[in-house]
Amino acid sequence: MSRYLLLLTLTLPFILMSVLSAITKYKLGHSTKNRLVTQLILWSLVFIGLASAESIYNWLFQNNLTQTEPLSLFDVIQITAIVIVFYIANRSLSKIEVLEKRVQDLHQELSIRLSAKK
Amino acid sequence: MDKRNEHLRVCVVIPAYNESSIIGDVIAKIVKVFKNTPYSTEIVVVNDASKDRTGDIARKHGATVIDHVLNSGAGGATATGLSYAEQKRFDIAATMDADGQHSAESVLRGVIEIIKRDDDLLIGSRMIDKKGMSKTKIIGNRGLSFITYVIFGISSTDSQSGLRIFSHRALQELRWKTSGYEFCSEMLWRAKQQNLKIGEFPIEAIYTEYSKSKGQNNWNGINIVKSLLRRRIAELLG
After folding, report:
1. How many domains does chain A have?
2. B235·A94 Cβ contact <8 A
3. I need a surface site. Which of A8, A103, B76, B221 has the fewest CB within 10 A?
């Protein structure tokens, strides 16, 4: 199996999960159209970059624009790790947003109710 | 506003943090000015976990006091006050600073204006008549209004003004996420997203040594800009 294909196989599930999650959130009304579009553009760019990594490398090499070695197994692991970290960071950001909003609402409601009892 | 003036219920929200030395006067002036109007008025002081006797003094002067359990900043305290006004089904709500910077007459004028104009959110702008404002304040306010325009595409002469008047529709629909002073700009953005009608009316800010010491300084503006940018990016990514 080509290393470029291995890289794509390892990262594709995370890209698909992110895209699916963005679409689901939008369809359920938990997200805006702007957010959906940004997420789709972002993950499409990641996918296009990874899918065309070999062609880009070959083109750069043939035109003497890079002298680096082809993708090593270590590079595959490293890039996969970066994509996973990006996926986790993206998910965490949206979870923090939701939690922050819930804590604010809770504090607000609690303050109003406690003050009404005084 | 389809109701007649005499039936309108107005809620004046005052977010306050450590304002025990002045809150009593601010409430007394509001009571005095609104006494001879046809509106039924309730003054709500949101005591943002003050360390002094702000809450007790406000209560003593006849205001409804909502005590925040945790200090959440001007944005959080304003949100609590407006949420109370919405729950109690007020027709109009007004927010004003607790440091005596806004006059009770300006609040009343804003209430009359919002009824006349049929706006949803009316901002009391200190920049239309800049009397009494220092050059530093003018530069700071202009800068933040410009940044609000660049980040959110909303044009306002005084995006940071704390004197704001809300229609019932605005009370129902307007929500924001930031809890510090940056909520002023975010609120305008959210109002635009909700297609609320935003207007402005001129007010005169009263700058005393006390209100100068309590207000935001220009360095805080950097934190506001950082927070607004973060909010804008989070909105796209989250």
Report:
1. 1
2. no
3. A103
Other C-beta atoms lying within 10 Å of the C-beta of residue A63? 8
**Pick among A26, A106, A111 to test the B interface (most B CBs inside 10 A):** A111
- Could you tell me if residue A111 is inside a domain? no
Instruction: Confirm or reject contact between B76 and chain A (CB < 8 A).
Output: yes
Contact across the interface for A39 and B237, Cβ inside 8 Å: yes
- Report the C-alpha gap between B53 and A45 in whole angstroms: 56
For residue B95, the tally of other CB atoms under 10 A from its CB is 28
- Any CB–CB contact under 8 A between A89 and chain B? no
- Residue A97 and residue B69: Cβ atoms within 8 Å? no
The rounded distance, in Å, linking the Cα atoms of B198 and B83 is 19
Q: Note whether A32 contacts B: Cβ–Cβ < 8 A.
A: yes
Q: Tell me the pLDDT tens digit for each residue of A13-28.
A: 999 999 999 999 999 9
DSSP secondary structure letter of residue A115 = H
Residue-wise pLDDT for B84-124, tens only, equals: 999 999 999 999 999 988 999 999 999 999 999 989 999 99
| Helix, strand or coil, per DSSP, at residue A42 | helix
| A114 domain residue, yes or no | no
If you count residue pairs, one on A and one on B, with CB atoms under 8 Å apart, how many are there? Answer: 59
Selected residues 160-199 of chain B with any CB under 8 Å from a CB in chain A: 177, 179
Q: Is there a domain that residue A98 lies in? A: no
This prediction's pTM = 0.81
Q: How far is residue A2's CA from residue A7's CA, in Å, rounded to a whole number?
A: 9
In a domain, A106, yes or no: no
CA distance B47 to B18: 8
